[in-house]
Amino acid sequence: MQDRAYALFEEQQKARGIDVEAVKAKLKALKVETPSWGYADQGTRFKTFQKVGVPRNTFEKMEDAAQVHKYTGICPAVAIHIPWDKVDDYSVLKRHVSDLGITIGAINPNLFQDDDYMLGSVTNSNAAVRRKATDHLLECVEIARTVGSKDISMWFADGTNYPGQADIRKRVHWMHESLKEMYGALDSDMRMLIEYKFFEPAFYHTDLADWGMAFNMANKLGPQAQVLVDTGHHAQGTNIEHIVAYLIGEYKLGGFHFNSRKYADDDLIVGSVNPYELFLIFYQILDAIADSDAKVRQTAEGIAYMIDQSHNIEEKIPAMLRSVMNVQTQYAKALLINLDEVKDAQERQDVLGAEEAVRSAHEMDVTPLLYAVREEMGVPVEPLKAYRASGYGEKIAARGKGGASW
Ligand code: LRH
Ligand code: MN
Ligand code: MN
């Protein structure tokens, strides 16, 4: 049955001018980083729910993340957040992670959960607070060096709640001063990924509110600083794929945080609300990977795909598996876009033809393709089902309630 479905799929794609073997190779090469905080207890400002079986420390978070890699084969790295994942000796953590067959991905400094940062971290008018924040950034560079991570991923909660509360221009200047110092501490193969968000927790102004501000900051810092786009960090209706295309064109897109939202920065399961948006983002990235400009290609190929999800009502590992599979599905669909067909239609100025060439790929059922790829990768064809049957969920239930939050 599976074989027949795949044979039919292959035939159908050949007729559309798609090289299925090339598509399979790209699917096998896809890597999606998962966040340590996505395995911990999470909540909203109203309640953090305590779940049974949640990891009690960073070491256990890594064990759960390794399960996601085991069942998907595409999640070999885990992002950590400092100090949520603070440990005494990072080389011990590195060894633990490597024993699990995975690695540590992006290092995320945390400059928002300390009373000192209430009125800003690297933008605080108090020089001592700025010093403390900058020292934390430097500490994160050092941690990255110890664990062998190349990306430091930064999101700043800095902002104000009221008009007149602070000097907006001075704050940008202070942030630049701090980031410049951090930039100077990077090894030549490290990157600073600068994330932006339009509001929350600050409600009047946020110092890095949009891609333009992050882009400008990254430009001022240098080539090792790039922008990170988080799907949940935009106003309703924002054309995120346009931002993606623009930033790649400027060689400045470095990373992606996938999650799903309906209203704000909801951090829910990826692709649960608007999978088409994700597909269109991948279309822009794949189109750039086929560009004749080598720098555009390298930028697009260098994008770090990460999930940034803080689901709080559902089971942690199954929810992460669902997200990873949803990313894989939309990526697979985007790989079925016949880019030559799109270009031909563009050249003919055939508006409907071009839109059809993009959309038709999304309408394909990629299940037989994903089954075949997973089989060839030696992972279960249905990762979630296999995980549930494995008994790991029952085993970790012994951890009880009251695990790590964040
Ligand atoms: C806050 C946020 C941000 C970071 C993450 C750790 O908005 O979701 O996206 O990347 O916390
Ligand atoms: Mn994020
Ligand atoms: Mn966020």
Quick overview:
This protein is an alpha/beta fold.
Describe this structure in words.
This protein has 406 residues and is α/β, with parallel strands linked by helices. It is built from 16 helices and ten strands. α8 packs parallel to α9, α9 crosses α10 and α9 crosses α11. The radius of gyration is 21 Å and the shape is globular. The site of 6-deoxy-beta-L-fructofuranose has 10 residues, from loops. The site of one manganese (II) ion has 7 residues, from loops. Pfam families: AP_endonuc_2. Its EC number is 5.3.1.14. This is L-rhamnose isomerase. It is an enzyme of class 5 (isomerase).
Summary keywords:
406 residues, alpha/beta, 5-stranded parallel β-sheet, 16 helices, binds 6-deoxy-beta-L-fructofuranose, binds manganese (II) ion, metal-binding
User: For the terminal residues, how far apart are their CA atoms?
Assistant: 43 Å
Strand order of the largest sheet: 4-6-8-9-10
What compounds are bound to the protein?
6-deoxy-beta-L-fructofuranose, manganese (II) ion
What CATH architecture do you see? Answer: Alpha-Beta Barrel
CATH homologous superfamily label: Divalent-metal-dependent TIM barrel enzymes
Output the radius of gyration: 21 Å
| β-sheet strand percentage | 5-15%
Protein name: L-rhamnose isomerase
InterPro entries: L-rhamnose_isomerase, Rhamnose_iso-rel, Xyl_isomerase-like_sf, Xyl_isomerase-like_TIM-brl
Domain Xylose isomerase-like TIM barrel: 88-266
Keywords: Isomerase, Manganese, Metal-binding
What is the topological layout?
Blueprint: H1 2-15, H2 20-29, E1 34-35, H3 58-72, E2 77-82, H4 90-99, E3 103-109, H5 127-147, E4 151-154, E5 159-160, H6 168-185, E6 191-195, E7 205-206, H7 211-221, E8 225-230, H8 240-249, E9 253-258, H9 275-289, H10 294-301, E10 304-307, H11 316-335, H12 339-347, H13 351-362, H14 367-377, H15 383-390, H16 392-396
Parallel strand pairs: 1-2, 2-3, 4-6, 6-8, 8-9, 9-10
Antiparallel strand pairs: 5-7
This protein binds 6-deoxy-beta-L-fructofuranose and manganese (II) ion (MN) (2 copies).
6-deoxy-beta-L-fructofuranose binds at residues 81, 108, 155, 195, 197, 230, 257, 265, 267, 308.
